[in-house]
Write a structure and sequence with these properties.
Elements (H helix, E strand, L loop, with lengths): L6 H8 L49 H10 L9 H14 L3 E5 L2 H11 L7 E4 L6 H8 L3 E4 L22 E5 L10 H10 L3 E5 L7 E2 L2 E2 L6 E5 L12 E5 L2 H11 L24 H8 L2 H22 L5 E3 L6 E2 L4 E6 L9 H10 L16 H6 L2 H6 L2 H10 L4 H9 E5 L7 H16 L1 H7 L1
Parallel strand pairs: 2-3, 2-4, 4-5, 5-8
Antiparallel strand pairs: 1-9, 6-7, 6-11, 8-9, 10-12, 12-13
Helix pairs in contact: 2-8, 3-8, 4-5, 4-7, 9-15
The structure holds pyridoxal-5'-phosphate (PLP).
Amino acid sequence: MRRQLTRREFVRNAAVGSAALSAMSSVGAPAVMAAPSDKPARLGGPKAHTGGWPGWPEWRQEWEGEILKVLRSGNWYRGGGGGKVAEFEAAYAKLLGAKGCLATASGTTALITSLHTMGVDAGDEVITSPYTFIATYNVILMLKALPVFADTDPATLTMDPASIESRITERTRAILPVHIYGLPCDMDPINAIAKKHNLAVIEDACQAWMAEYDGRMCGTLGDLGCFSFQNSKHIPSGEGGAVTGNDENLLDRANAFHNCGRATGSFQGSGCFTRGTNFRMQHYQGAMLVQQIDKLVQDTKIRRENADYLTAHLKEIPGITPVRLPANSKAVWHLYPVRYDAQQFKGLPRQAFINALHAEGIPCGGGYHEQYFDGIFDEATASRGFKRLFSEQRLKANRDSFQELAGNRQVCDTTVAFYQSMLLAPRSDMDHIIHAVRKVQANSEALAKSV
Ligand SMILES: Cc1ncc(COP(=O)(O)O)c(C=O)c1O
């Protein structure tokens, strides 16, 4: 069987070359046309792109001073309040238009904190998206709750709101939509369903820093939002995460939980400790993050301009369908995905299409696969804890329901995605991507025969 790339391999492979970024123009220059006679690199023709691509992560020499200041202060621990972590929390909340932000050790710990804060407990069920990084499954399983999958809408790659209600049971406690690849979920219908059934909404915005839905930022649309600042992310600090929201009491509860259960602000619990753990961020991470906020804003603008340019041209190529975004929303493109229709490429299999683009000097990958069949569920639900908490019948019914995820299967089978750092390259490099796809399309018959 073909081995799927893990997300981290996927991102690492993208960090090829170190082409300097040059000034970009937002004016749409015509993309280079491919004549059918242009020989694909896979069949011995010249590469569409011979330079490198921007590497990731990027760092600036001027960041060093703030890191050194933390080192020399001896104040490396955020427990006492203040310092670089608090500075980042204030700046990130302001950027998002959120009432508050709690920095955490990672996106995973932000999600666990939020699920606990919203009352998700052992034996509960959480409806989430199957099309996500595996951490989304794992955080629910960690709390000994059952992930139940809504289907993925092949047009948007995000949770199909129409598939949620039929999955609600008396044990459902929360909905966990994922703004995957920085594509905003259609949050209005999701929030309406949650309200009707009295469910919490926790946004997995771990790939969606500054993504917008109807004029508001992802991470501020549900009860709590969760972000990751892991190395591959658009604002990275090696590891790191955040919980954002607009309800002070929820944020205080989250703060208490992530800080060993210490009574915090409006949440005094039983007066001292409640259940909690240590998911605190360090000031070194805070110092890295504070300094990257302006860069995030600038990079997001460039990624959006290049993504719009790709969409305008790639959508004209038979067999390539860019994603549809909800009305009034803006993606931030942690990956730039399209759906690939092999029929329109004379039956050229998706992996052969990807290989042909690699030969052209264009890195890309197939995205997430049907991870729920990998054994993670069998392993988790065979545990003593899960057996105590759920009936055999319920676990089997949930397992069987994965077969019904037709939209998600289609997305897993047909997505081809380009990496976020490529979107930071000059506009002429976007033309190389478009040219390469056109060349492969024009020669798909010969390429399909050569597989
Ligand atoms: C969608 C999604 N959810 C959760 C996570 C977990 O974040 P972290 O790796 O920071 O723990 C990530 C990123 O890694 C992610 O991409």
